[in-house]
Amino acid sequence: xxxxxxxxxxxxxxxxxxxxxxxxxxxxxxxxxxxxxxTQVGCVIVNGQHAVVGVGYNGFPGGVDDSSLPxxxxxxxxxxxxxxxxxxxxxxxxxxxxxxxxxxxxPCAACAKLLWQNxxxxxxxxxxxxxxxxxxxxxIVYEFxxxxxxxxxxxxxxxxxxxxxxxxLESSKSQRVI
Length: 178
Hints:
Blueprint: H1 19-31, E1 42-46, E2 52-57, H2 83-89, E3 99-103, H3 109-117, E4 120-126, H4 136-147, E5 151-155, H5 160-174
Helix pairs in contact: 3-4
């Protein structure tokens, strides 16, 4: 097979992840930037055209000296900004559109309401992924928002493409000529 400039290329035999697997995998990658040493949470917000419009991870407020802040429970709680709040704060363009959030963990009630307030009407969350124990308030808010149109999709993502990426990066690193 030849590409547009006539270079012979191998046929594309690799499998591509589904949109859900891709975005939840991206949310997991985003979570690696977290300051939290116990629970890394990532959130990716996409629009109806599958374009990423916001990302965030649980971390300290931007622009502060965080070198002496605690990164473990319970000392971290007053300082940590949730991944969902950071993703909303980082929205590239804010239109009242139907947005979708891919979140590594089920959001707390406050973040659920924040997502709703910013037009995020659909969530994809891995089955069983909770960053905190569910409170009665969480259940009340989830039920209320669901009755008003929130779609929560619990998925079992195939993240094997992340392993393939890691293997590919390691392979290319070992092939570099110094």
